[in-house]
Amino acid sequence: MTPSERRDFIYGYLYEYQTVSISSLVELMNVSHMTVRRDISALEEEGKVVSISGGVRLNNALHQELPWNEKARLHCQSKRKIGHFAASLVEDGQVVYLDAGTTTFEIARVLGERFNLTVVTNDFSIVQYLMNKPQLNLFHTGGRVDKRNHSSAGNIAVMMLKSLNIDIAFISTSSWDFEHGVSTPHEEKVLLKQTLLERSRRSILVSDSNKFGKYGMFRVCALEQLDDIICDNHLPENIIKKLEETNINFYPINV
């Protein structure tokens, strides 16, 4: 592996498992302790990770999301189950928005077998998948292309959303908690998601539990601005209880 490939591997591994020991990274990448320590130092300078005794953990303050292809390999079972449940909330004839993401892609897989629906998305992978489903009406927002995330954002996408009335919107995120709400490390996504909240009769956050407790620099909204949250059931018990005490419809999916 090149230094860049090693650091991408470490960041991707931490994105899934949160912490890892230096000795485990030495074994996983078949390199020396010194090489791993240099890679960790480089990632720490970028603000992506934090060194701990004998290892490293992901920095809860996210500075960058993983590319779409890497995210697609993580927590697949949780995403599929969340996707199936989320799709069951969609009624015939509705206008559905699918935010860019690998969990919303799982919703698209299920909705692709339905009839009498209109799907709007800013995700190119979702569009490509649904392109072969002629029974669905399909719209893409357009806008500046984010190649890492197979999506588009920016003012053009926002203008498109402002012209629509959306029945149900499934919103993705890289980070969320009670203190910071739904957040993102990318400024250009904020107005898009906020416009989506304004234009949708029902807004639903779909996320696996791995993303809870992380936060990005840019705040999208408070959790209380959402109608529903669909997540797997691996959140801490005190967090599940707190969510159930809010006015948000919380669905912990058994995984």
Structure description:
This protein has about 260 residues and is of the alpha/beta class. About 40% of the residues lie in helices and about 25% in strands. The chain is built from ten helices and 17 strands. The chain has helices at about 5-15, 20-30, 35-45, 70, 75-90, 100-110, 125-130, 155-160, 190-200, 235-245, and strands at about 20, 50, 55-60, 60, 95-100, 120, 135-140, 145, 150-155, 165-170, 175, 180-185, 200-205, 215, 220, 230, 250-255. It has a seven-stranded parallel β-sheet, sandwiched between helices. The chain has a three-stranded antiparallel β-sheet with strand order 1-3-2. A hairpin with a 2-residue loop joins strand 2 (about 50) and strand 3 (about 55-60). The two termini are about 35 Å apart. It comes from Moellerella wisconsensis ATCC 35017.
